[in-house]
Amino acid sequence: MSKIVGLTGGIATGKTQVSNYLKTFGIPIIDADIVTKMVEAKGHEGLVAIISEFGEDFLDVNGELDRKKLAQTVFSSDSELKRLVRVINPFIGSEIYRQINELKDQKMVVLDAPTLFENGYNSIVDETVVVYTDPVKQLSRLINRNQLSITDAMARINSQWSLETKRDLADVIIYNSKEFDLTKLQIDDWLRNEEF
User: Fold this and answer.
1) pLDDT by 10s per residue, the chain, length 196
2) 55 a known binding residue?
3) 71 carries a ligand binding annotation
4) Of 30, 51, 137, 183, which one's alpha carbon is 20 to 30 angstroms from that of 176?
5) DSSP 151
6) CA-to-CA distance for 49 and 16, rounded, in angstroms?
7) Tens digits of residue pLDDT in 142-179
8) What is the arrangement of strands in the sheet containing 127-132, beginning at the earlier edge strand?
9) In sequence order, what DSSP letters do the residues of 27-70 get, joined into one string?
10) pTM over cut 0.85
11) Any binding-site annotation on 17?
12) Which domains does the chain have, with CATH numbers?
């Protein structure tokens, strides 16, 4: 059976950079964001469940999920975000478990999930790795990357647990506030300790 590592962090902390670097070692990655898009796609039961809960106004002209409209709704209200999570999480969880089972012969599998702790996926992993970034840098990255206002960026950051809380719960912390070469050195050290 594989060792399952949960990789998490806040939005715009550089978790994807870390995940992509781990791929260069041949480590299989289960990306919760990709899984989410998969189960919310046209023709999937997950999309049917979302539309049943939120209404057909959240479909675009092609019958696909209007992600921008849904994001505006759920990131402006805790109760709406909880409502979405309650509806879609069973589909996401089912696909994650399926992929873990498919990769059970690998030495290590990384579950890359921004809301690993929030959605309880930390209970299915053997070790948690948190990518931590200075909060000011996190905000700046998110504004630049997603072309968001400060208010919208803060709403997205605040929809997740604080970086400090995640850092306190982590087995391993990767600091990613400076050049990525320094981050790579930390990842290399961690993998050496894992004897990977």
Assistant:
1) 789 999 999 889 999 999 999 999 999 999 999 999 999 999 999 999 999 999 999 999 999 999 999 999 998 888 999 999 999 999 999 999 999 999 999 999 999 999 999 989 999 999 999 999 998 899 998 999 989 999 989 988 988 899 999 999 999 999 999 999 999 999 999 999 987 6
2) no
3) no
4) 30
5) H
6) 28
7) 999 989 999 989 988 988 899 999 999 999 999 999 99
8) 29-31, 108-112, 3-9, 127-132, 172-175
9) --EEEHHHHHHHHTSTTSHHHHHHHHHH-GGGB-TTSSB-HHHH
10) yes
11) yes
12) 1-28+108-196 (3.40.50.300), 33-102 (3.40.50.300)
Residue 96 CB-density burial (10 A; 0-12 exposed, 13-18 middle, 19+ buried) = buried
Q: Is 13 annotated as a binding residue?
A: yes
Token digits of residue 175: 């600091």
Instruction: Write down the residue that tokens 């999309």 correspond to.
Output: 47
- Write out the two tokens for 121: 């996926």
Which residues are CB-neighbours of 6 under 8 A, at least 6 positions away? 110, 111, 113, 116, 121, 122, 124, 125, 127, 128, 129
Amino acid at 25: F
